[in-house]
Design goal:
By secondary structure, this protein is mostly helical. It has 2 domains: 364 residues, no CATH class; 107 residues, no CATH class. It is 69% helix and 0% strand. It has 24 helices and no strands. Helix 2 crosses helix 18 and helix 5 runs antiparallel to helix 6.
C-alpha cells in the first residue's frame, strides 16, 4: 500500500500538494478561526441544523420524514438530502451508545457527537472536491496549468471553507454535484453513468439549485462524446433514469402522501415562516431588494416606513398601515422571531391570531404593486438584487473582528465572478471549449436570473450561499483567463514546479 501511494504521489505531485494544502486550510479554520468567526459555543450548529436533525429523528423513530409531527407542512418544509447525509454519523453514535447501554432516544447530547463527526466528514469530502474540480478542468479544458489553478482557487476559496465545519447542506451538495460530473468524464460504462445520475439526484436533494444542472447535461455529455450519436443518447438516458429515480422519489412521495405537487420545499412548516411572514416578504420584494429595516421594526414595534412607491394611492397607504399594525400585534409568524416585542402567540390561540388577515393584506398590496409599477417589480428591483448578488461587499452581522475581516473577502468573490464571465467569452471563442463554456455559463446565468428575477416565495431573498454552486464552477473560466495573463503561468510554475513535469 505504501508503495502504491508513493507511486501515485510521484505521478500526481502537484494536485496532491494542493489537496493537502486545502485540507490543512480547512482544519486550521475549523480549529482556530471558526470559534471567533461564528462567535458561538458550537461551531457545527446553525439555525437550520435543527430541522434536519428533527426530520431524521422522526424518520427513524416515527417512520415519517417530518420536522414536526402532526403538521403537514412540516413534512415537506425541508428536502431530505442533508438529513440522510447525517444518518451514517447518527447510526454510528447510536451503535456506540447501544454498546454502553444508553437510550439514544432520551440522550439528546448524542447529537453533539453526530454533528462533530459529520463536520469532519464534510472537511474530508470538501478536500476531495479539490481533486474533483481539478479533474473536471483537466478533462474539459485539457490544460494542466488551468486545472492546477482551478484547484488552487477552490482550495483557498473562503466561501466554501467557511461552511466546512457547519452542519449545513452546502458542502455535500457541492461534493455530490462535482462527483456526478467526474463520473461522466471518467468512464463510458453504463453503471458509472447510473452512479453519476444518482449523485446529481442526491446533490439536488441537498440543494435544489443543482436541479438546473440536469437539463444542461446535454452540453456536458457533448463535451465528452463530441456528437449526438447513439452512444451519446444511451449514456444520457441511463444518467437521467437514475437521476429521476433518486431526486424524483421526493416529489413522488409528496404527491402520493399528501396529494400535492411539491418539487422542492414549502417553508410554512416552520412557525416563523407562517403565511403572514411569507406574504410580507413577498410584498417587500415587490417594492425593494431588502426586507430590512422594515422587518426588524415590525418585530420591535417601531415606526415602519416604506419607500415612496409603496404609498402611490390612498387605498394602498391605508391598507399598508393596517397590515403593519396587525403584523406587530397579532401576526403569529412574526411573533415566532427572536426580538419580537411581546410574548409569542401560541398556535392554538386563534382569538389573538390574525395571520390570515395580515397575509391577505400583504398579498393584495403586492398584486397592486405588480399592476401599478410593473417596471419596478420586473426590472428595477431584480437588477438591484443582481447587483447585490455579484457586488455584495460585507456581512450583515459584523459582531466579531473575524467577521469584519471576512467581509472584505467579498471583493475577492466579485473579482472571481467578473473574471469568470470574461473567461467564458474567451472560452466560447474556441470551438472545443464551447460545450463546457455553455454548461457553466448557462448554469450561472439561469440560477442568478431565477433567484434575482423570480417571483416564487424563495426568490429575491439574496443570500450568498444560495449562489455557491455556480460560483464554484465559475472558478474554471476564471482560472482559464488567469492563465492567459502574462506572468501568471510562470507564477503557477514556480509555486508548483512539478506541475509542468507532469504535463
Amino acid at each position: 500500500m505504501r508503495s502504491i501511494l508513493k507511486k501515485f504521489y510521484s505521478g500526481n505531485r502537484a494536485i496532491c500538494n494542493v489537496f493537502f494544502l486545502g485540507l490543512l486550510l480547512r482544519l486550521i479554520f475549523t480549529f482556530f478561526i471558526a470559534p471567533f468567526y461564528f462567535n458561538r459555543t458550537n461551531i457545527h450548529f446553525d439555525n437550520d441544523t435543527t430541522a434536519w436533525m428533527a426530520a431524521l429523528s422522526n424518520l427513524i423513530y416515527q417512520g415519517e420524514f417530518t420536522v414536526m409531527l402532526n403538521n403537514e407542512f412540516a413534512a415537506y418544509c425541508r428536502m431530505p438530502g442533508y438529513s440522510l447525509f447525517l444518518a451514517p454519523a447518527f447510526e454510528l453514535v447510536s451503535f456506540s451508545y447501544y454498546l454502553q447501554g444508553i437510550d439514544v432516544k432520551t440522550h439528546t447530547e448524542m447529537w453533539y457527537s453526530v454533528l462533530k463527526i459529520t463536520a469532519f466528514l464534510q472537511i474530508v469530502l470538501d478536500s476531495i472536491s479539490i481533486y474533483f474540480i481539478y479533474y473536471i478542468s483537466k478533462k474539459t479544458i485539457k490544460q494542466h496549468k488551468v486545472a492546477i489553478t482551478v484547484a488552487l482557487l477552490y482550495a483557498f476559496y473562503p466561501f466554501v471553507i467557511v461552511w466546512n465545519p457547519v452542519c449545513y447542506s452546502e458542502i455535500p451538495s457541492i461534493f455530490f454535484g462535482l462527483l456526478a460530473l467526474v463520473l461522466v468524464l471518467a468512464s463510458n460504462k453504463n453503471y458509472v453513468m447510473a452512479f453519476a445520475g444518482a449523485a446529481l439526484g442526491f446533490a439536488v436533494l441537498n440543494r435544489p439549485q443543482f436541479a438546473l444542472l440536469a437539463p444542461l447535461m446535454i452540453f456536458f455529455f457533448y463535451q465528452k462524446y463530441g456528437s449526438f450519436n447513439k452512444q451519446y443518447f444511451t449514456k444520457l438516458f441511463v444518467f437521467f433514469v437514475l437521476f429521476s429515480c433518486t431526486y424524483g422519489a421526493w416529489p413522488i412521495r409528496n404527491y402520493i402522501r399528501f396529494n400535492k405537487v411539491i418539487i422542492t420545499q414549502d417553508l410554512r412548516g416552520f412557525d416563523n415562516w407562517n403565511d403572514d411572514v411569507i406574504a410580507f416578504m413577498q410584498y417587500i420584494y415587490s417594492v425593494k431588494s431588502e426586507w430590512q429595516p422594515q422587518f426588524s421594526n415590525i418585530l420591535q414595534n417601531k415606526q415602519v416606513d416604506f419607500p415612496e412607491i409603496a404609498y402611490s394611492t390612498a387605498e394602498d397607504s391605508l391598507k399598508l398601515e393596517r397590515a403593519v399594525y396587525l403584523a406587530k400585534n397579532c401576526g403569529r409568524g412574526f411573533s415566532e422571531w427572536g426580538g419580537y416585542w411581546k410574548a409569542t402567540i401560541p398556535i392554538f390561540d386563534t382569538a389573538n391570531d390574525c395571520s390570515k388577515e395580515v397575509a391577505r393584506l400583504f398579498n393584495e398590496l403586492r398584486q397592486s404593486q405588480i399592476e401599478k409599477h410593473p417596471f419596478n417589480f420586473y426590472v428595477k428591483v431584480p437588477l438591484q438584487n443582481l447587483k447585490k448578488a455579484i457586488f455584495k461587499s460585507g456581512l450583515s452581522d459584523n459582531t466579531s473582528f473575524a467577521r469584519k475581516l471576512g467581509g472584505y473577502l467579498f471583493y475577492f468573490r466579485t473579482l472571481l465572478i467578473l473574471t469568470g464571465i470574461a473567461g467564458l467569452f474567451l472560452m466560447f471563442r474556441k470551438k472545443e471549449l464551447r460545450p463546457i463554456a455553455l454548461f457553466i455559463g448557462s448554469f450561472f446565468g439561469m440560477l442568478y436570473f431565477y433567484l434575482c428575477f423570480g417571483t416564487s416565495p424563495q426568490c429575491r431573498n439574496i443570500e450568498i450561499r444560495y449562489f455557491l454552486q455556480p460560483d464554484v464552477l465559475m472558478l474554471i473560466p476564471a482560472a482559464f483567463i488567469f492563465c492567459q495573463i502574462k506572468g501568471f503561468s510562470n507564477f503557477v510554475q514556480r509555486f508548483l514546479p512539478p506541475a509542468v513535469k507532469e504535463n
